[in-house]
Amino acid sequence: MLDRQAPEIDWPAASTIGSILKRAGLISPVKRRRRPLDQRRPCTPVQEPNDEWSVDFKGWFRTRDQCRVDPLTVADSHSRFLIELQIVAPTTEGVRPRFERAFREHGLPRAIRCDNGSPFGSRGAGGLTTLSVWWLKLGITPRFIRPASPQENGRHERMHRTLKAQTSSPPADNASEQQARFDAFREHYNRERPHEALGQRPPEDAYRASQRTMPDREQDPWYDANHQARRVRGNGEIKWKGKFVFIGQALVNELVGIAELDTGDHVVRFCDLDVGLIDRRGLFTRFAPPREGLREPGEQTA
């Protein structure tokens, strides 16, 4: 930070400054953490800003007046730029307006990394919710981590640890004061706080807005001639070969494509994501959400 503010001065090395502060009693000793085991499941490599955003709710807590707060956090995985930090309801209705604001201000990412919980993921076809269905229609790929595997979103979890230490230990008197703390943290985190992974630069220096802009209107997905298109009804069903087949509530009113396989079964697709299979008996089997590390059927583990 000193180098950026006054580059003409020959400042001492960071280690020397640290020694001076320690001798003056201005640095509190930090308990060393035992080095964790490497599970060999690193975060997805990203090459530039907006290749991937990550989203999560920092665990809810109560302010001193006993008001529950659920902080939504959205960050760019490449630059660590904190795009959103807002107290909202953990529902699609609470979250979607914040994403609309972020998409209009910063453009669209190529993918969003998230967990499998509501409102991002579900146990339905393809792991989709109405929120992640909307992402797909905008050309954004949901990247679901495996259940109970926060290490697969490690960058975001590390930011949450810093956020908790600086804003909610202890919590503010009320939700309004807590949001003010979050706003100040986001400003400092993005514009001032050096980040080791960025060569001690703040995230703002490494971030730039996406060239993919938020469209004014949503369009139905396009399917090629090998697909038969069906509109999902209000009860989550489609009509297929004279029968009603339940696909999923998350896809109500959406257009899906159905393509025949060599086996005689039919794969159901939404945008670029295969969400399930209609077998020759007309029974639908949903696909699990695509995740890194999942085994193929019949594949043996080492």
Task: Write up this protein.
Helices cover 24% and strands 20% of the residues. The protein contains seven helices and 14 strands. The protein has a five-stranded mixed beta sheet. A five-stranded antiparallel beta sheet has the order 8-11-12-13-14, with no helix packed on it. Mean pLDDT is 89; it is low at 35-42 and 294-302. The protein is elongated, with a radius of gyration of 23 Å. The protein folds into two domains: 44-206, Nucleotidyltransferase, domain 5 (2-Layer Sandwich); 228-286, no CATH class. The protein is of the alpha+beta class and 302 residues long.
What attributes does this structure have?
disordered C terminus, 7 helices, five-stranded antiparallel β-sheet, alpha+beta, elongated, five-stranded mixed β-sheet, Nucleotidyltransferase, domain 5, 302 residues
